[in-house]
């Protein structure tokens, strides 16, 4: 007892010292932390406000630098555009000359070229092409047709025209092509001269000079309007409101709140709620501070509250406008308060953690002093051996064999730790062998069980069935309802399957939406049919996912031991093949493994390999089927159709396209088709054939490609094909699944056609909102249109609908005169089908479209 009293006395003294020391250290440290917090908040508030001001300033100066760069590029850009337009005109002239050379007299060829270029304009209605001969005679001069064909001499009424012609003549004589700059009267003011640039190029067949020009000031004006529109829609890098405003020095508003106003609204007298003349003050500020400055004023927020606002503005004197952007100070204050609260929260957390650490350390020190004061070295060694034995073997310490009370308590802790370790070991073992989502045995444990069952059935010469289950259309659940809904569905499927099985059957989840079931001993294969029917019955009632009922089916493949394999790997592979056969048979069904499935799998592998080689070797071809305007009997466009020639003959797209889609090869094939169609349109254009558009079928898989739009933009840019010459044919499901991507293409000018219209499932309310140019009547309505009143009524309704929505309508699959006569009577504008022509190779199509000169007069116009 005396010994115990000495220990207790010692522990009280040591504990008191440690406790007081802990309090002093804790108090000093906590006080220091909160002082630092106050300093940190003050520095942050000051730095954050300055940071926001610098963001405003950098944003505005960045826009000003952008404006100056665009101004510097104006002259260069105008010259480049002039050169491109003259090159285009020269290409048109070259194409006409090549087409009719030695077929028509030179006079007729010249007149065709002149007619083709006379009414062609660009940039504005004042832009035109002119043609001069090398003998100083105007051949084409739209502003004064009266001087065409007459030699212009110096001193006549057209002195200026003579001088410009002389400059152009000298240039093309020495350089073949180039730029001419001169002062020229404006069409709207014949007393005012403006600087004008022209680009001229020699046309050697007739010793002509083909050229065109534009006023620099007009180009700069158009360029300025474009730049201001870009500024209007450019977001800032700061918090809301994130837009720039542009106002002239006289108060005309050009841009604000993400919109372009074009200077039509004057806000010179605009005042803030406290009466500040905001615009007038801003004009004074930018005139006094050429490098820009800040301006403070109260202004209403979107919710109606008035708050102090700070804006940075800088002037652009050459445009007589100022540009700026701003932010509300209360928004900045709120952010500062939020950050301060975060700092305080972190400090509080550190303080609590420090207190806990100090208390824990104090407790540990006291315990250590207590234990060492008991002269426990020998007992500690004994305890260590017992402890190691308990941990290694997962058994409890025998507290009855421990003498000291303190060790008995420690033994209790050790025993609880042993229990916890045993539980954790069981959890880890369970986790390694079970699926985290459904708690079913995972692939590893399922395969181990199958291996064990194969040994048992082999010993007893019995049958065993392996079921391979895959959910039908599970990806659609994830895509439409989200992955959380997909997880709920998998858990419910697992519960239903588990409730259906017999006690001797074993269910496992392989991963994703795939499950396997290993049966116990089976008397005959008929038992597998009964089990499969019960499994399919699990999916007959709907599943409730997030308070929404959905139906889900499953495809089941069955492999029987020993008929379909003696190893677990072979049974799994054959059951998987049988599952794919069940899907092929219509889904929500079961199928037994059959040897021909291996052949089908090999066929798929061979087909995918051949497709890869076809892409690498460029084996594909494009044929083109005409789309004819019935009223004018004129080929106005065509559809590009993919062809794959092989040694054994042509392979139908219906055979290889599904393999291309399932393997992902549809994307490189689709990219090749789009580029080939664009190049073909440009080639035909150079040969004198100008079609409205070439239509290309687009797969839903292509639209899922994140680089789909960028590839089309690249194709158009690199081939020189205009956007309106490319028409993409898509299905209703593609329109509904990717409306934003298709809307972006539509806004670029690319034409969109709805394929197989009338066979889909979208409502008419969607149709008026979708970006479309054309709808195609499905051939299923055309086949019997001459003798089926229902098909005729549907076709008539589609034609009326297209006319009402201002959409083009084309009927595809027209093959006989009866169908054509009915469609002509119903005033169907466009026809496609064998009645006119099958799909043709490029050269054959050109010959067909240009036959009898039907397209000869369409060289300069689109559609």
Describe the overall structure.
With 863 residues, the protein is of the alpha+beta class. The chain contains 25 helices and 27 strands. The strands form five sheets. Strands 19-20-22-23-24-25-26-27 form an eight-stranded mixed β-barrel, surrounded by four helices. A hairpin with a 2-residue loop joins strand 13 and strand 14 (514-518). Helix 1 runs antiparallel to helix 6 (329-372), helix 10 (474-481) crosses helix 11 and helix 16 (666-686) runs parallel beside helix 18 (708-719). The longest helix has 99 residues, at 2-100. The protein starts with a helix and ends in a 14-residue tail after the last helix.
Helix coverage percent: 40-55%
Strand line-up in the sheet with most strands: 19-20-22-23-24-25-26-27
Unreliable stretches (pLDDT < 50, length at least 5) are 856-863
What gross morphology would you assign? flat
Quantity of strands, as a count = 27
From the helix content, strand content and strand pairing, which structural class follows?
alpha+beta
Query: What is the average of the pLDDT values?
Result: 83
Kindly estimate the percentage of residues that lie in beta strands according to DSSP.
Answer: 15-25%
Biggest sheet architecture: 8 strands, mixed, barrel
Ends distance: 113 Å
